[in-house]
Amino acid sequence: MLKAYKVFPGEIPSDFGCLLVFAESNSKARSTGYKGWPGSDSEYLDFRAWRQKGFDRYSSELDKPACFETNDDLPDDWERFFDDEVY
């Protein structure tokens, strides 16, 4: 089953933004997020993956791992995953 993760470089998502990644494990989410990250300034070891259990409900709509860069990339009926507040 795919689980939702917020993946980002740095200490907290608001430093550089984040991706919403659906993957089977934390390490797969980090790898997917690293590969999908816009730009190449960060090293793999700088990336973190925080579980976002509230977004797991959307995983049933996906048939494979997925990575969303912005809220605009999400289907219209999904909640936003990132704004100026860290949550």
How is the biggest beta sheet arranged? 4 strands, antiparallel
Portion in helices: 10-25%
DSSP summary: helix tally: 2
Write the element-wise H/E pattern from the N-terminal end onward. EHEHEE
> How do the strands line up in the largest sheet?
3-1-2-4
Rough outline: globular
Radius of gyration: 12 Å
Sheet/helix structural class: alpha+beta
Give the distance, in angstroms, between the N- and C-terminal Cα atoms.
23 Å
Beta-strand content: 15-25%
How many beta-strand segments? 4
On the 0 to 100 scale, the average pLDDT is: 90
How many structural domains are formed by the residues?
Answer: 1
Q: Flag low-confidence runs.
A: none
In brief, what are we looking at here?
The protein is of the alpha+beta class and 87 residues long. 17% of the residues lie in helices and 23% in strands. It has one domain (3-73).
Detailed description of the structure:
- The chain is an alpha+beta fold.
- It has one domain.
- The protein has helices spanning 13-16, 26-36, and strands at 3-9, 19-23, 47-51, 66-68.
- It is globular.
- It starts with a strand and ends in a 19-residue tail after the last strand.
Reconstruct the topology from this structure.
Layout: E1 3-9, H1 13-16, E2 19-23, H2 26-36, E3 47-51, E4 66-68
Antiparallel strand pairs: 1-2, 1-3, 2-4
Keywords:
4-stranded antiparallel β-sheet; 17% helix; alpha+beta; 87 residues
